[in-house]
Write the structure tokens for this entry.
Amino acid sequence: MYSQVNYKEPAPIMNKENPFESMMERFDTAANKLGLDEGIYNYLKSPVKQVITSVPIIMDDGSIDVFEGYRVIHNDILGPSKGGIRYAPDVSLDEMKALAAWMTWKCAIVNIPFGGAKGGIKCDPAKLSLHELERLTRRFTANLLDVFGPERDIPAPDMNTNEQTMAWIMDTYSMHSKRTVTGVVTGKPMILGGSQGRREATGRGVMIVSTAALQKLGIKSNDAVAVVQGFGNVGSVAAQLLYEQGVKVIGLSDVNGAIYNSKGFNLPEVIDYVEKNKSLAKFPNAEVISNEELLELECDLLVPAAKEDQIRSKNAGRLKCKIIAEGANGPTTAKADPILQEKGILVIPDILANAGGVTVSYFEWVQDRMGFFWTLNRVNTRLERMMHEAFVNVYKTAAKYDVPLRIGAYILAIDKVARTLKIRGIYA
Ligand code: NAD
């Protein structure tokens, strides 16, 4: 009855930039350009709430184990806070703080009435049984009953959590509320009030902003060549939708390695192959290359859609693409940014490029509250309009302040939250 949570390898901790420092570096640059008031700067850099909670559970062998859980609400000025829950051994408060702040900026950029949050449990999900994962999720939810809520703070799936995890959170919250509260989480199964198009939303958003950027550079989709790193939820959908736009996808990769074909891949065939073989590695008629080589292929569009810290000061100088659309969160380190800028590579930052997921999460929340569900066509049309508007607004802001799109995106977001804060005022 339950689907097993897929365990994914945690990112290596070594060589990882401190994500909060990396976020703050970009935040500081944008705040300076914007001439942000010092008081508001201090307000926005501090999360409004940081919860660390002990999550004890009875293991299958009858022993008691205690895990550490976190929920950070970075900001709730624009509305209830929104952000995923991840289960991994290297979950830390610093990581949660960075990811929560990114959610605040992401929601502001796509103009949805949410603040930013992130949560997680430090655990090794590969070592937990399905029933242990259920008890862990339900106890974590019970500990956070006064934090979560459809009007307060709305979790979603993230690394090593899925639709089933959201169903457990929703059920636990509902049991305590004595009624079914579907709007307390997003990324739910369709049968529990999930939305059409949610699974593909992030990859679809990546495709929308990528084609908009190609257009800005005067490159027709039919003439464009792309490389996509990562073939999971985001990468495979982005690659498929780019292919449907006529883009030639010459390089693909997953955790097992990368493949190259100068003539371009037939994406439906690749997707079919991966469904059957669980990996791209031995896809026929393709040259096997390393993940490092993949990133350095000559192309118009590079989509890093695997994990953080892939484009670093060490390899940024060797990239030969014209556009980078950051499907993953934090795939480019702060130190690589100036190198890419120097090379004239147009970087569509993560907080814009992968915001399609939270946008359709917003649609899911709206549909749950209305109790009225939209067609796939309505979801996709609205997503397209909102992502396109966000791209245009970030582009205009970057041009106005003469900064790269990443800083433009931060300026747009910080300005929106700061103006809202000024109008609301500080309650004392
Ligand atoms: P996923 O687990 O479905 O897919 C990740 C893919 O990356 C897999 O194909 C995996 O094999 C591959 N991979 C892992 N390590 C790799 C490596 N070293 N080199 C090459 N490939 C590697 O995850 P996802 O949901 O597609 O998320 C990918 C990224 O996008 C993450 O950074 C995530 O935070 C971000 N993101 C996801 C969503 C969403 O809605 N799923 C939304 C916003 C951001």
